What we know:
Elements: H1 11-14, E1 19-21, E2 24-26, E3 39-47, E4 57-64, E5 69-77, E6 85-91, E7 94-100, E8 106-112, E9 126-128, E10 146-151, E11 163-167, E12 171-175, E13 187-190, E14 202-204, E15 209-213, E16 219-224, E17 234-237, E18 239-241, H2 248-255, E19 261-266, E20 272-279, E21 295-303, E22 308-312, E23 318-322, E24 328-331, E25 342-347, E26 349-354, E27 359-362, E28 379-381
Amino acid sequence: MSSLLLRLSSKTSLRKLSLRCRHSTLRMFSSSSTTTNPYLMYSLIHYGSCLDDIDVTSTIHYFDPVKEDEIIVRDKAFPMELRNTSLVGMSHGWGVFNVETGDGRHKAVYVSDYCNPCGSKSNPKIIPLHPMYPMGKPNITQLRLITNAAMTCSPDQSKDFVVAANCLGLEIHFFRPCGKTDNYSGLGFKTESHFFDQSKVMYSKRDKKFYTPSVGGHLLGFWDSCFEDLTASKIHELRFCNLPEVTQSEWELLDSCSPPTVHLVESPSGQRFLVKWYAQNYKPGERMTFLCRGTKHFMVFREEEDMNMCYTEDIGDLCIFLGRSEPFCVKASSFPGLNPNSIYFAGDGFGVYDIATRKPRSFRPKSPSAFSTTPLFPYWIPPMPL
Length: 386
């Protein structure tokens, strides 16, 4: 069976797009009349004799969790500016790319809609950010890796956006392309505790702050996106309540997992949840597939008054999307086919977790050819306007 092919030529034609599969035409690009479905970008393949050629193109593989099927965007131009970069994060459908020098050190950061299925196929948008030298001075972060990133908004919404780049170690850097002064081009802060090593950063639209939970989730660091206070991050100690009863077999399962990764996510209404993701590590040389694999369990805590975190098994009509991109929530009722009260995960396995029953399941793609390539990029893309 031939692969599904999604042809993207312009925003105007997106409303008329169809997915073509052999002899039938399925008008199933979106469950909403105004946005795309959420997508998972999991594979990217380049075509050309060498990366120095002008006419290098890409084929990008996406997964639509609403239809549980594959979407392929072919013949997408691979910009020269991104040839020697690494995709290190994604937020609002925009990829964050790290530019490296010959000795492997950080040199600069770009944001681009190159990975966005709604972006231009022939001329993706690329916005260069300033080198990682906060306030004109070299910093130890240039020796470290960016692990994840978050943005205040899409550059399509505002040119005065802020990018937060979380780095391996104890540092987080912020970039504002349209800052008021040169000092705002690259602000660097060092967290005060080793508990924030390899933590995940997110942006709260409700509070206009960046947050990053500590390893284990007991502390929460945050920064004002206006950067009026240029001191180190503020840290809040979280209190947990209504903890679940855990059986002996569940304790044994959790004990077999690595320390959980902790994610803070905000719903469209501003309600926040702290999610602990428990997974077992892959064995060396083990091939990643679209199965649950290492993921065993999630714990979800709803933020109550004074940042108290209350365990819950009911987030209502919401779905949470977790991967290497900035986490986000959508209403399941807005995208018929999504399972409410669920977590869609990509990274330590690929699937959907029912919060009420505490059970994960693997995705069930309809196309036999789907996921024939090894998943490489577990990046979720939120619904994008048509």
